[in-house]
Amino acid sequence: MSNKARFITLEGSEGAGKTTALNTVKNQLEQWQVPYIVTREPGGEETAELIRDILLQSKHLEPITELLLMFAARHEHVKKVIEPGLKQGTWVISDRFVDASFAYQGFGRGLDLDFIQHLEQLTVDKNQPDLTLWLDVAPEVGLKRASMRSEKDRIEQENHDFFKRIRDGYRHRQAQYPQRIKTIDANRSVQAVQEQISSLMQSYDHWVNP
Question: In what order do the strands lie in the sheet with 7-11?
Answer without folding.
Answer: 36-40, 91-95, 7-11, 131-136, 181-185
